[in-house]
Amino acid sequence: MNNLKKKTVKGVSWSVIDNIANSGITFLVGVILARILSPEEFGLLGMIAIFIAMSNSIIESGFSSALIRKVGAKPVDYNTVFYFNIFLGIILYIILFFCAPSISNFFDEPLLVSITRVMGFILIINAFGIVQRTLLVKEVDFKMLTKISFIASILSGFVGVGMALRGFGVWSLVGQQMSRQLFNSIFLWVFNTWRPAMEFSKQSFDELFGFGSKLLISGLIDTIYKNIYYLVIGKLYSSSLLGQYTRADQFNSIFSSNLTSVVQRVSYPVLCSIQDDEEKLRQVYRRVIKTTMLITFSCMLGMAAVAKPLILLLIGEKWLPSVVFLQIICFSGMLYPLHAINLNMLEVKGRSDLFLKLEIMKKIIGIFPIILGIFCGIEFMLLGGVLMSFLAYFLNSYYSAELISYSTWQQIKDILPSFLVSLFVATIMWSISYLGFSVWITLPLQCFIGVILAVIIYEFMKLPEYLELKEIVLSTIKRK
Fold first, then answer.
1. Nearest of 319, 263, 328 to residue 289 by alpha carbon
2. How far apart are alpha carbons 53 and 222 in whole angstroms?
3. 18: exposed, middle or buried (C-beta count within 10 Å: 0-12, 13-18, 19+)?
4. Is the N end or the C end of the chain the one with fewer CB atoms within 10 Å?
5. What is the pTM of this model?
6. What angle do CA 262, 268, 273 make, to 5 degrees?
7. CB 309 within 8 A of CB 430
């Protein structure tokens, strides 16, 4: 158990650093670009986000999860997945290339033809790095992934900002995103010793695809749903309003998406390694949920509280409409890591059939907020998304509970204390914004009081998950 804890803590630590290096620097670059470029230019890139995301989801095909889960995966398994990914990436790029005029006509934006065709190269670039990344994840070698992310994020940041300063407009966003994926794939090959051999096994493909195909369909459904808001806003409203939404979504992703990514990447291989020990699996699973949600509630509710001064200070008044979007998104985003943990358990137990069933059920219900967006406005669509996030949690936890004897009610009792503390602290932080100080004083004051108040309350309550986090942080500081 101690070795598993050490491995998990090490994985989490490097995965967090990886996300800071990758998404943190990318966020900083985004802030700089947001000050130079207009909401309309960000909106143009948001219009094709769903098409790129869907294609990437198809290329991945659930093979990464299948390879990580498979005990004793052989070289032929990795080679088979590698060549299939390349083949699929090329096919999907060709389809996207010829569909570019139709996408442009749908949004009535002529520039989207060339943007779509250039951005489509990301599909082929990413296909070359999937197996390399999967190998590192399976080995829980997030230290190497951190180095790669850091270098790629820094170099692509220089590309994007340099192009923006030279007046390339929306193409600076294209350049930044493409160069990040290109550098990432190149360095995955430079720092990883694995090389493909000329072999392809139909038997291996069938075995991996048998598990991964259901995850592929589930992932595709989830990707479409997550990006459908871009489609609705871009089509029914304007590129400027879509740009405002993309900025709000990026701020939300600082914690929500990154925490979800950390939880998925680290917990999945760790839980897979103990999948046959029911008691140990349940103990580790419960600790992961309690610790993750303490961090998530604190970060997401805190961000909702400081949204206005944060956006005004970092990217300026032209992005003020995104404040309301961000505040609403934070309440749905705070449950994303919890969704990921519960869905991970279905994968660990090999129940990709339940995974698919859940995704179909949730997305059918999820049509409701989209209808609200079409007829009532963006804010109502996002509020509907908050409701759907809570309903989705109950569905996810219901099915995972049956596999591990850890009920939804037990989960709620475990995470309720940290939610109530975070909600109380966030309310105090939010009230500070009404004192009339400048944003330069308001934001630091909110953050300072929020952190101090949270620490005082948790020290008094002595929650096990807080004490464990405290121990990890202090021991890490001592080692450094």
1. 263
2. 10
3. buried
4. C
5. 0.74
6. 135
7. no
